[in-house]
Amino acid sequence: MVDWSPIAKVYDPLKAGSIDGTDVEPHDRAVWRAMGARYKPNKGVVGDPLLTLFVARLNPQTTEDKLYQVFSKYGDIQQLRLARDIVTGFSKRYAFIEYKEERSVVRARRDANKLVVDQHEVFVDFEQERALKGWVPRRLGGGLGGKKESGQLRFGGRDRPFRKPINLGVGMVQERGGGGGGGREWDRQGARDREDRDRYRERTHRHSWTNLT
């Protein structure tokens, strides 16, 4: 457990279905489906996944222009795509925003999460579909986060990080503040900054290696 992290670096449906990432058996049928899924990212999605943000929980009335106005303050935007129903044209309430610079993505991910846009508190994170190895979307039983009402919570993401396993070991960072949640080490600003730096160091390294091959 020395490499334990509250944020998944590789997507594993079995671990994502576990509150601390230690399950050895799926606890719901959707996890079984996700474990057997063979998902390939949408080839129609263009742009650099390492410079792209995923923005969700949008107001159905929020437009592309509004998103551009809000998120351009974090840096120059290369392109913005608000997902819409192919038949009705209605918003699916999530969007992808590609920036021109890495620092803009990090800044927006850090500062725009839980920002209120058109009376809705939005969720912001790095794109997962093309950047997180092994990714399986919610419709196939995977994904991250989720609502308690669905009975299919997924852990290891920004919305619902893994909790520290009880048998983690003495040498690792310990939780503070008991079981209240608010004292978890990764909830502190310094831990969030380290998470951003570490993840982007890995992502940038992988991106550079891909360009060389």
From TrEMBL:
Subcellular location, principal: nucleus
Lineage: superkingdom: Eukaryota
**Location of this chain's protein in the cell:** Nucleus
UniProt domain RRM: residue ranges? 51-129
| Bias (Basic residues) ranges | 202-213
Enumerate composition-biased segments (Basic and acidic residues): 184-201
Does the UniProt entry include the keyword Heme?
no
PROSITE patterns registered for this protein in UniProt: RRM
Under SMART domains, the record lists: RRM
Write out the GO MF terms: mRNA binding; snRNA binding
Per UniProt, what is one Pfam family of this protein?
RRM_1
Annotated stretches, region: Disordered: 171-213
Keyword annotations for this protein?
Answer: Nucleus, RNA-binding
* Any one of the GO CC terms: U12-type spliceosomal complex
Q: Keyword Transit peptide on this protein? A: no
What the entry lists under SUPFAM superfamilies is as follows: RNA-binding domain, RBD (SSF54928)
GO BP terms: namely:
mRNA splicing, via spliceosome
Q: Under which name does UniProt file this protein?
A: U11/U12 small nuclear ribonucleoprotein 35 kDa protein
Q: What is the lineage of its organism?
A: Eukaryota, Metazoa, Chordata, Craniata, Vertebrata
